[in-house]
């Protein structure tokens, strides 16, 4: 069984994508961490992304006039990045490097086709002439002569694997319509050349994997079929060229429609994913991503892509990556062991109500089908009793699972008390394999009831579900919309703190609600104040120290200026007398927004719609938090659920980017902008002074390591 799960956008690819990918995507490679990917565009730029946060961690570009000509890869042994620009110029750098002009450079003697990085074998460099070198060997003599193996053939595809401790490289070439396959074991310098069996159609895409001392090469042909070719790794023959025969693995057709595939990847031994356009007679072509079961020759699932793709498909860590319109899209997937029931679809009892939306049918079907195969019963041990017990067990399992859907349907018109009591009973005895599916069904049933009956809102059960269950926005997408409509601030605060996948539009809507409510209304609400009380109490304890020491280059009394007189009477004093521009309830809610995950690309357009007065209020609070952070040695607010200084700075930059012109023209913002300017100037001055003594401090540290200091010593050092 295979299924496509939730999807999200990793980054934009157009001129406004903001990550240097305006030239289109050349390739995507795994990064140094399983959650990181390296994107290389068709121009000058490589970008490292953290997938779970949809944020770039680093971006590097070569000079104008230079072009990156093969995908940038990560050397997993040294955690360095390796790139080739202008076909022959090799560059190697680390995360902390910024300017690629200043990193390691080597000019090679031949044009590079591709660099393949292996987790334990180091990078392999494949040249256009077919020569292969490990990166270490190549760096010993960058100008060494590279042999030309393929002569007039053009390399179309390549891939590298590890066979034990031996790196193996396979690549396919084309010449005059004929296709050839080369297999090279790099360490022992063993090379074998094969020719693919000819036919009318031509291979368009390749992929391969190693199993049982064979390389299994899969080829997607132009006749809308996938073929399998087996290549032995242990080759004893001395023949110069062998003909590789192929066998049909899969026809990409279903119900009269044919999939015109452009690229594909192997998911497991029974499933492949194909990206292409689905064409039915008399209908318009539709681009889509599909997963096929090769064991049973069936289409498992598909997703239509109306904005079009580039035809490229990558797969890492159970995630698909492909371009969709002007963005790079990520779709998660899951694959389970193939069974006949999973391939052809589950049957359901026509006499029972339609409960497919309430039940995890995958678990039910796989459990029923797998149970008989897991136990073997001797023929003389009472088969009738055994079969009857299995039948009864299956019937009980089906009855228990179907009761979820039946219960929710029966409770549709039940009273509020009965409805909530039955739901609590259901959740208390929910089986673990189906718990997430049942939670989603229950939350959907509750939110649907809330929308159908405006006076109905079971706040207690919603809070209980969000606090005690591992939920996400995608599992109950209507929950926060209902909470916004009811102005349930406590529930919204918890959702912002717990849900990792809240859309930027919902985050913005929460922000506008928190900023628009009056202080009187907020004081009557019950929200968690831990993120506010903690650092106020700590500051109160340190009151007598604060005004005597200039910490992190900033003294609040010296830099405060005239802003204190301009703060409205709604401000609230913290423990040390500093004035907070918002009350504790609003501050706690805004902290939840600051800590939520977001993508700048998609949040910024919404922030531009924020009213000017709310911008001033929010920016004043952010400035207040930044001052609080900078008064502490470690620039960290204590307590739970407190925003970090990086989160505070990111939001300040976002607000200023979205409203800078308005803020400059707005009289009410003049004092705030002046304070921000003074604060930043003080910080720059402080770090400038630190940088002047950085060299002396490093030398002092080096001297201390060299000396054997006894229990007591006095030493005078002069810093010049």
TrEMBL record:
Keywords: Activator, Nucleus, rRNA processing, Transcription, Transcription regulation. Residues 406-719 form the Nucleolar protein 11 C-terminal domain. GO terms for cellular component: nucleolus. It is found in: Nucleus, Nucleolus. The keyword Cell wall biogenesis/degradation does not apply. It comes from the Eukaryota. This is NOL11 protein. It comes from Centropus unirufus. The lineage of its organism: Eukaryota, Metazoa, Chordata, Craniata, Vertebrata. The gene is Nol11.
């Amino acid at each position: 069984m295979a299924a496509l799960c939730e999807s999200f956008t990793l980054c934009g690819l157009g001129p406004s994508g903001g990550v240097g990918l305006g030239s289109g995507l050349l390739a995507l490679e795994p990064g140094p961490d399983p959650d990181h990917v390296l994107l290389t565009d068709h121009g000058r730029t490589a970008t490292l992304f953290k997938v779970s946060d949809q944020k770039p961690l680093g971006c590097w570009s070569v000079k104008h006039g230079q072009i990156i000509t093969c995908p940038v890869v990560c050397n997993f042994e040294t955690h360095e990045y390796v790139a080739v620009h202008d076909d022959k110029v090799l560059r190697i750098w680390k995360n902390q490097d910024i300017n690629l002009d200043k990193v390691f450079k080597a000019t090679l003697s031949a044009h590079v086709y591709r660099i393949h990085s292996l987790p334990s074998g180091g990078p392999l460099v494949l040249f256009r002439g077919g020569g292969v070198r490990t990166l270490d060997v190549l760096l010993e003599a960058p100008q060494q002569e590279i042999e030309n193996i393929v002569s007039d053939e053009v390399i179309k595809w390549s891939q590298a694997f590890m066979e034990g401790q031996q790196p193996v490289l396979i690549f396919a070439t084309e010449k005059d319509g004929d296709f050839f396959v080369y297999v090279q074991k790099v360490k022992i310098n063993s090379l074998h050349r094969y020719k693919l069996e000819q036919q009318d159609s031509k291979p368009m895409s390749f992929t391969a994997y190693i199993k049982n001392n064979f390389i299994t090469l899969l080829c997607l042909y132009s006749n809308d079929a996938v073929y399998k070719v087996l290549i032995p790794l242990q080759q004893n023959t001395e023949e110069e060229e062998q003909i590789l025969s192929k066998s049909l693995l899969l026809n990409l057709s279903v119900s009269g429609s044919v999939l015109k595939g452009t690229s594909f990847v192997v998911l497991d031994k029974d499933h492949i994913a194909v990206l292409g356009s689905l064409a039915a007679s008399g209908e318009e072509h539709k681009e889509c991503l599909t997963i096929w079961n090769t064991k049973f020759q069936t289409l498992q699932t598909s997703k239509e892509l109306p904005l079009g793709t580039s035809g490229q498909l990558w797969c890492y860590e159970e995630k698909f990556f492909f371009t969709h319109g002007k963005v790079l899209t990520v779709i998660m997937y899951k694959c389970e062991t193939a069974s006949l029931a999973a391939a052809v679809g589950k049957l359901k009892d026509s006499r029972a109500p339609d409960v497919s939306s309430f039940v995890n049918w995958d678990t039910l079907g796989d459990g029923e089908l797998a149970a008989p195969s897991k136990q073997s019963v001797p023929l003389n041990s009472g088969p009738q009793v055994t079969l009857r017990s299995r039948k009864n067990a299956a019937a009980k399992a089906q009855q228990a699972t179907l009761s979820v859907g039946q219960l929710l349907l029966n409770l549709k018109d039940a009273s509020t008390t009965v409805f909530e009591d039955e739901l609590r009973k259901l959740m208390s005895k929910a089986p673990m394999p189906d718990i997430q599916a049942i939670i989603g069904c229950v939350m959907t049933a509750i939110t649907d009831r809330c929308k159908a009956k405006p006076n109905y809102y079971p706040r207690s059960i919603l809070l209980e579900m969000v606090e005690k269950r591992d939920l996400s926005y995608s599992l109950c997408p209507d929950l926060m919309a209902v909470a916004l409509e009811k102005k349930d601030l406590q529930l919204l605060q918890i959702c912002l703190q717990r849900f990792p996948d809240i859309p930027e539009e919902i985050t913005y809507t929460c922000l506008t609600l928190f900023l628009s409510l009056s202080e009187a209304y907020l004081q009557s609400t019950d929200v968690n104040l831990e993120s506010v009380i903690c650092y106020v109490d700590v500051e109160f304890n340190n009151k007598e120290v604060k005004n005597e020491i200039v910490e992190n280059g900033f003294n609040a009394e010296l830099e405060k200026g005239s802003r204190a007189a301009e703060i409205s009477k709604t401000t609230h004093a913290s423990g040390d007398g500093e004035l907070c521009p918002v009350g504790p309830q609003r501050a706690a809610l805004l902290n939840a927004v600051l800590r939520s995950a977001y993508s700048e690309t998609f949040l910024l357009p919404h922030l531009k719609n924020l009213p000017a007065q709310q911008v001033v209020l929010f920016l004043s609070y952010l400035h207040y938090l930044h001052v609080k952070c900078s008064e502490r040695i470690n620039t960290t607010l204590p307590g739970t659920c407190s925003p970090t200084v990086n989160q505070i700075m990111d939001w300040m930059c976002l607000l200023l980017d979205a409203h800078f012109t308005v803020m400059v023209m707005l009289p009410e913002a003049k004092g705030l902008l002046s304070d921000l300017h003074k604060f930043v100037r003080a910080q720059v001055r402080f770090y400038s002074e630190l940088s002047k003594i950085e060299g002396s401090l490093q030398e002092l540290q080096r001297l201390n390591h060299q000396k054997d200091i006894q229990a007591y010593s006095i030493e005078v050092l002069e810093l010049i």
